[in-house]
Amino acid sequence: MTDTQGATIPSPAPAPEREPLLKVTGLTRHFPIRGGLLRRQTGAVRAVDGIDFTVNAGETLGVVGESGCGKSTMGRLITRLDEPTGGKIQFEGTDITHLGVGAMRPLRRDIQMIFQDPYSSLNPRHTVGTIVSAPFRLQGVQPEGGVKKAVQDLLELCGLSPEHYNRYPHEFSGGQRQRIGIARALALKPKMIVADEPVSALDVSIQAQVVNLLDDLQQELGLTYLIIAHDLSVVRHVSDRVAVMYLGKIVEIADRDSLYRSPMHPYTNALMSAVPVPDPRRRQSGGRERILLKGDVPSPINPPSGCRFRTRCWKAQDVCASREPLLTALETGHQVACHFPERSEGNDGHSPENAPENQGS
Amino acid sequence: MTDLQKTPADSAPAPLGDPFLSVRDLRIHFDTDDGLVRSVDGVSFDLHKGRTLGIVGESGSGKSVTSLGIMGLHRSKRARISGEILLDGEDLIAAGPDRVRQLRGRELAMIFQDPLTAMHPYYTVGAQIIEAYRVHHPKATKKEARARAVEMLDRVGIPQPDRRLDDYPHQFSGGMRQRAMIAMALVNDPSLLIADEPTTALDVTVQAQILDLIRDLQEEFGSAVIIITHDLGVVAELADDILVMYGGKCVERGPAASLFDAPEHPYTWGLLGSMPRLDRELQERLVPVKGTPPSLINVPSGCAFHPRCPYAALTGGRSTSEVPVLTEAAPGHHAACHLAADERHRIFTEEIAPRL
Amino acid sequence: MFAYIIRRIFAAAALLLVVSAVTFAIFFLLPRFAGETADQLAAQYIGKNPSPEAIAAVKKNLGFEQPLYTQYWHFLKGLVSGAEYKFGPEPATCHVPCFGYSFKNHLEVWPEMTSRIPVTISLAIGAAVLWLVSGITTGVISALKPRSVFDRLSMGVALAGVSLPVFFTGALLLTVFSYEWPILDNLHYVDFTEDPLMWARNLILPWISLAFLYSALYARLTRAGMLETMSEDYIRTARAKGLVERKVVVKHGLRSALTPIVTIFGMDLGLLLGGALITEQVFSLNGVGQFAVQAINDNDLPKVLGVTLLAAFFIVVCNLVVDLLYALVDPRVRLS
User: Fold this and answer.
1) Reported confidence tier of residue A347, pLDDT bands at 50, 70, 90
2) Do B259 and B248 form a contact (C-beta atoms < 8 A)?
3) Sorted alphabetically, which Pfam families does this protein's record hold (chain B) (predicted)?
4) C6/A37 touch (CB, cutoff 8 Å), yes or no
């Protein structure tokens, strides 16, 4: 718990000289598509198609995007539940990109995962005690004071009662099950937790409980989080930095405040304006400009040339089809992959509200 | 696309005339091996044509059971339904099942949460829409029905509708499927449309498209709409009036603006406080509602919310013994809470509002 | 879709090849492993008390001296181009497709076997129609009124049907309807082309006893499938359209519920076409099943080999048909 020095305070602006806990470069995952008589590979679903980012110790990186953008695949690659097609994943300086099951084992203690569905991710035939203590058995760890004591401490840490030790998952509500999943993930004192949609299956009033719990645990244990979610408001609440994904690429990555205050990529803008806000006055006063994207996300089998968002973008020009915009830092800690980013120099920033009319979809 | 023109209807008095849909003391209970499940336990509301009612609640609050009850889709012998559902003056609970079936799809239509499972995988989208039309237009020829289906697909924004008509549901994207589902529901010009979590399975940008579409269509057809959701953001986008359900009962009901500005019930405060909001400054911490939603077999005595209510102690023990009645707290705004209205207003302005 | 069909046909052909190889190995390789000499093996092809000359002839004809793959190759060649055997006074011709030659009876296996096929097909198809109609109807009614008197009663009968063996129900039917009250006496197979009425009359008892077993199974399967389908979201959608319940059940429910049953039906039918051993035995029907039983009793290996391959062929073909039907029924298979 204490071996990640200086990690207890989440720092929104990480010191650049420090070695990041996780470093991902050019990560790709292509799922082959087979077709024809002989089932030869005829194409590939480019689920993750070359992404770079780092996560520093003690911080939370939020990854947002719509279904099919590759965010969950990315999470599975980092936790090495899936084999990357290309690129490099470094954890604490060690290359873990193609480590086998055996070589990955010691690292599994450091990287844990929390899943979306608290119903299917817990074995219904095992007691809570068995579930939470499974990591000890798998790793052959003998915790101080015995397994039972350790599990009960973990349950308490996650807001459950130690008496729940002998109960079965079906006796718990969704929120409590998610707590059990979190307790299991924490058993081996990991350094990093990858959480894929940790609260999206929960009721609103319960979501807040789990979000707060994740917050507290980070403060207390100095954890590093990679939180994958589709809900922009939840991501804003939990993250220090946020990456926005579209069709297998990161289109924007920035400090939380910078991203939410002044998003630069048109897609981020559209995404944010689409979130329904619990304020009926807004829709009447016309106080907000909503960007309605037309059409659907293109297929990741055949992504558009150049910028992948151009087919739905109101700012798209010829250059967007011919040249792929690279992720570049326009401000400190704010990287965008766009030829015509919002609110940047050399661009008078066509305001998006009159945009939907001239879309060429 | 952007909804700027709509006149603020929320603060206007309810339209004159009888409501199109009037639900009175609706109770839907289920006999199960574990005991009697009181899924809906005395819900009443009115809905006029051209207006939208939002029903908000968490899982197990009874919101979906209510909507299926209005549609007459509880077929199990174990369902016990009482109360009145008056559709244009006709009581649907007293009416025979065949009469309700005739109204279903014609006067009452429904769209469901997951358009992938809600459409039959073996029939084309067109065949399913055509079927919906021909049930209530038996004299229509196949050609007429097909033309009508193309027209509807076009209306809900599906490109090349005459070609897409012959596609199967799995060939549509999620958003397109929900559009097709809406086309199917609206093919007979229903007077009441019930949308049960219509955007929960969709991405935000697609959700925005669908909400926009529902709003446009309502303005065009002037039908009454009930939107059922757990998402306060979604109701705020669409609803004129809002009904908050908890443990099978209505705990608060009122015009949308007033409900969001001055919510009366501690549960509504809890809901508003526990959701992170993009339109507000970032809070250090969310304020969750403690505990978990109640079991509908063992609903807590008195006020069902009392085990989770931070203010239960202020009621002098009434919250555990007495079921609170829905009373008018502000014009058109009702709440079922034992706290005195003044006390509630004080707590809200002093403690709750600053945190929201 | 076209690629799918071609691929399926190729897969079926490959499967048949594998089955033939395995069968071949079982009949020719395993005895060698068990320590049998070529002479002993050859002796089995002739019958009791074979003469040394006969053994030598069989050995030569079947090439037991040659390596196994050559033997297999000859076997495959025989299937497509026939074979000549020099055995006894005159040469014996085994015509295409040569499934083997019975040296015991001086007969080709294939024509003898095929002459039994009409009997087996009549038995299997008739029973199949009977059990499909009764099983599915019972299953659907049970599913629509779960826990009703009909449901409990029919599921009880179904349980009995699954547990009672055919030799019991068959013998019971025979005793009652052929001997006690001779309504259907003197049962023997009459070809359909000869006298359809007699064909049906003489087969009705075998049909019933065979169908009883299967319809019980199918009633249970249909009931389970139907119960599951009727709780699907799209059934709720169909009701929300205002469809009458009959249409909801038949058009929306039954079609999905029956799809998995098609698969099982294909397997069952394929299995039966390879010979309904017990039923044929009980009712003395001279079908493929009887043929197999006789071949085994006589220790006539070419016949056993031939009938095994025939049974495998029926199963593979029925499975192929089922796969194609499935694609026809479910657009998700067809269009993906």
Assistant:
1) very low
2) no
3) ABC_tran, oligo_HPY
4) yes
Using a CB-CB cut-off of 8 Å, the residues of chain B touching A283 are: 3, 6, 236-237
Domain boundaries, chain A: 22-32+43-239, 262-354
Asked if the interface predicted TM-score (ipTM) of this complex is over 0.85, the answer is yes
The CATH class of the A22-32+43-239 domain is alpha beta
Residue pairs spanning A and C at CB distance below 8 A: 6
Residues of chain A neighbouring B279 (CB-CB closer than 8 A): 277, 279, 282
Residue A83 CA to its chain's centroid (Å): 18
Q: Scan for tokens 């926005």, then name that residue.
A: A244
Q: Is the pLDDT of residue A45 over 60?
A: yes
User: A71, A72, A283, A357: which to substitute to probe chain B, counting the most B Cβ within 10 Å?
Assistant: A283
A5: closest CA of chain B, how far (Å): 24
Please report the domains of chain C, with CATH numbers, ordered by start residue: 2-98 (no CATH), 112-335 (1.10.3720.10)
Test the C interface: residue of B120, B125, B192 with most C CBs within 10 Å: B120
For residue range B120-168, what is the model confidence (pLDDT) as tens digits? Answer: 999 999 999 999 999 999 999 999 999 999 999 999 999 999 999 999 9
Residues C269-283 have pLDDT tens digits of 988 888 788 888 888
**Which chains are within 8 Å of A by 3+ CB pairs?**
B, C
Query: Which domains does chain B carry?
Result: 2-107+190-355 (3.40.50.300), 116-189 (no CATH)
pLDDT at A284: 60
A40 to chain C, any CB pair closer than 8 A? The answer is no
Strand A249-255, strand A241-246: pairing: antiparallel
Phi and psi, residue C228, nearest 5°: -70, -45
Q: Which of A5-14, A325-334, B33-42, B96-105 has the lowest mean pLDDT?
A: A5-14
Residues C42-70 have a mean pLDDT of 76
Helix (H, G, I), strand (E, B) or coil at C217: helix
Q: State which residue of chain B sits closest to C257, comparing Cα positions.
A: B122
As a whole number of angstroms, the distance between CA B177 and CA B203 comes to 13
Measured between CB atoms, which of B58, B278, B287 is closest to A272?
B278
> In 3-state terms, what secondary structure has residue A330?
strand
Specify the length of chain B in residues. 356
- The DSSP bridge pattern shows strands B192-196 and B108-111 to be parallel
Q: Percent of chain B having pLDDT more than 90?
A: 72
pLDDT of residue B284: 81
Which residues of chain B does C229 touch, with a Cβ-Cβ cutoff of 8 Å?
none
Residue B355 pLDDT more than 60? yes
- Omega into C97 within 30° of 0, i.e. cis? yes
Q: In what order do the strands lie in the sheet with B21-32?
A: B35-47, B21-32, B79-87, B90-91
Hey, CA dihedral for A270, A276, A282, A283, is it positive or negative?
Answer: positive
Residue A20: both structure tokens together: 């990041």
The larger pLDDT score, comparing residue C85 to residue A235, is at A235
Q: Measured between CB atoms, does C7 come within 8 Å of chain A?
A: yes
Chain A contact set for C8 (CB, 8 A): none
Please report which confidence band the pLDDT of residue C110 belongs to, taking 50, 70 and 90 as the band edges: confident
Count of beta carbons in the 10 Å neighbourhood of residue B73: 17
Cβ neighbours of C330 in B, within 8 Å: 121-122
User: Is the model's pLDDT at B11 over the cut of 80?
Assistant: no
